[in-house]
Design brief:
Layout lengths: L3 H28 L17 E7 L5 E7 L5 E5 L12 H10 L3 E5 L18 H15 L3 E6 L1 H11 L5 E5 L5 H13 L6 H12 L19 E6 L7 H9 L4 E6 L6 H4 L1 H13 L1
Parallel strand pairs: 3-4, 3-5, 5-6, 6-7, 7-8
Antiparallel strand pairs: 1-2, 2-4
Helix pairs in contact: 1-6
């Protein structure tokens, strides 16, 4: 029996090393999402637009589009691993908002699309990206509204707490970063949720993300501008119950619940979805 102890220790050490190496690889891929870039432009739906480059206060260059419409502007914030070229929600919303008389700003977050940056910080430093977008929009528009999705939804809520926009819509924003992160391993990579406890430290080490800055409860009470959350009952990443917990400490935020999955409310009933957002902005 004693002879097996060194063998057992060696096996445990080997398994631990393999687990840690695998977790580090997963973490690297998590904070280094593949660039989602397509060939279509707003010109494809008849819009007059300009390619723009913004610079954040920490020196990051961001690429995007300024779709020229009316005097009020809507900033669209895409989700994790997506970009302005997303065709689930970004293209549909930018086309409809432009045709409804708004100017639209669609810019890639750092480490996404064509913008600079090697690693995403999952909503931490990306607030600097939003500030750069808002600064640009306020120079060109009378009123500024924000519509964000998933990670962009979280950033929309944070923008509301900083009063960066006149009104805000957050579709499928994460509320508990760790819970959504663990579910994301299964959703995006078909990996077990328990692996997250090993992946998270490496994600922090690689990207420099400060997870305390991705906690919406820290700024919930500071949200004063009119804010609407859209959430789906079938969302595998963000539970309705979690959003309801957030609303208990964010009294100025309204909730609209659909039967959709993550950021899929627009697909469930596109006409109603667009009408509700337009009505919210026009009130």
């Amino acid at each position: 029996m004693v002879l097996w102890i060194p063998v057992l220790i060696a096996v445990v050490v080997a398994v631990t090393i393999i687990l840690l190496l695998f977790s580090a690889m997963v973490a690297y891929k998590l904070v280094t999402p593949a660039r989602f870039i397509q060939s279509w432009t707003p010109k494809d739906f008849g819009a007059d637009y300009e390619n723009i480059e913004l610079k954040t206060e920490d020196g990051m260059k961001l690429k995007g589009w300024h779709i020229k419409g009316g005097e009020n502007c809507i900033i669209l914030l895409h989700g994790y691993s997506r970009s302005r070229w997303d065709d689930v929600y970004m293209r549909k919303v930018m086309e409809r908002m432009w045709k409804s008389g708004y100017s639209v700003l669609a810019v890639d977050f750092r480490a996404h699309g064509e913008s600079e940056g090697k690693h995403t910080t999952l909503g931490d430093k990306e607030i600097l990206d939003v500030k750069a977008m808002v600064e640009y929009a306020k120079k060109n528009c009378k009123k500024v509204y924000i519509v964000g999705y998933s990670m962009g939804g979280f950033l929309a809520l944070k923008s509301a707490s900083l009063e960066l926009a006149d009104k805000v819509v957050a579709d499928s924003p994460y509320i508990y970063t760790d819970k959504t992160g663990a579910r994301g391993l299964k959703y995006f990579a078909n990996l077990p949720e328990w692996l997250y406890i090993f992946v998270k430290p490496f994600a922090i080490l690689i990207s420099g993300v400060k997870y305390e800055n991705t906690n919406p409860f820290k700024f919930a009470k500071s949200i004063k501008v009119p804010t609407l959350i859209i959430a789906g009952k079938k969302d595998p990443l963000v539970k309705i119950e979690e959003i309801e917990e957030f609303l208990k400490v964010a009294p100025n935020v309204k909730l609209r619940v659909t039967e959709a999955a993550h950021v899929r409310s627009i697909i469930l009933n596109e006409e109603e979805y667009m009408a509700k957002i337009l009505q919210f902005f026009s009130q």
